[in-house]
Write a structure and sequence with these properties.
Layout (H helix, E strand, L loop, with lengths): L1 E2 L26 E4 L2 E5 L7 H28 L4 E7 L4 E7 L3 H7 L1 H7 L1 H19 L1 E2 L6 H14 L3 E2 L1 E5 L7 E6 L2 E7 L12 H16 L5 H9 L4 H22 L4 H14 L5 H10 L3 H8 L6 H9 L60 H8 L23
Parallel strand pairs: 8-10
Antiparallel strand pairs: 1-7, 2-3, 4-5, 6-8, 9-10
Helix pairs in contact: 1-3, 1-8, 4-7, 5-6, 6-8, 6-9, 9-12, 10-12
Length: 409
Amino acid sequence: MTEFSSSHIGGGYAPYPAQPQAYQQQNGQHQQHPHRPLKFQIPRHPGEIPLLVVTILFVLAVVVLVLVGAIVTYLGVPDKVLVTHDANLGKDVISVAHPGFFERLTAVLPFLFIMLLPLLILFGRGVLWGSQRAQAVEITPTQFPQAYQMVANAAQHYGLKKIPEAYVVSGSGTINAFSSGHGFRRFIVVYSDLFEAGGEARDPDALAFVIGHECGHISAGHTSYARMLVFQIAQYFPPLQMALSRAQEYTADNHGYSVYPQGAMGTIRLLSAGKYLNHQIDVDTYTDRAMRDRGFFVWFVNFLASHPIGTWRAWALRDRSRAGALFFAPKPTPGFAPPRSPQPAAPPQGVVPSVPLGRLPSAVGHTAPAPSHEPALSAQHQAGHAHQHWAPPPRKDAPPREDGHAPPA
């Protein structure tokens, strides 16, 4: 990790200031004291800490049950009764063989594997970090400098002492990112599909929000060893584990929104429709479905999901007057009308434009025109042609036109 210095934090991709949510403190994201540095107020989801407390109590109960079960099993290994024939006595003799240490140890092996879970998690975190160091591309001031600036700005905004390590890995078509840690190291990993060729982001604001979200996990302590240990043991009761996970995701969203609010809806477009159709999505229409799409199965999908379902998550990012919904569909706040999101913007310059729904010219038998040696069109002609939309040719069996001529084949 990199220490903060003036060379790392400067111009470039600067964050937006954002208003806090109504259910949080109303005095802004930072509080300034005449003799103290700025301090970031962690915008946690109000359900995260209560769920964490319940999860810790559940984990303690599991640990106690495992210890009690191991002790009872160890002491409860039955003695072996042996029947042997004594030739001198001329009869069978019954003897009792007490179990040895290894016999008792074999009986409690299942409990020992559970007790080794903390060491397995510690080892797994090290392997995950080592795999990034061995294979991933590191985000540095010279490698993906725009993304590095986003990481540095988010870390500084949250008051982190060091800039987390950041890496890019091959996404193979998957839109994702995650954060983790090993020892005192903290790092984030971004899948390559969030980037354009050459390192430029397809949607810089959405990428900035994703990076702010992952740095938010680090700021909120979600990547610490203790939190991961509690989270993994909670898998023995999935509904509790998933509820805590959804609360943590809302907390990370609040972090991302506090530093890059302009990227929130772009992230929803990206997650819901992918990297090619994201600029065509009306995110408000998608968000409004949170009020319409209800019922048992929608509730059940969210109940066992590690992340809030898409429409509920979009609603929480648009309606900042209350916390995101954990268990039941969100409801509108009386007297509060959330602002509508901007219409989908055109793709950034240099991005391959997304294909509109419908058939392409090649799909109806058209071939690409032969290379022309005519001079290039002027800027005025190019601008005029830019607004022309392709339409499929009329069918051969179409009725004649009013002028009596048959339509072209």
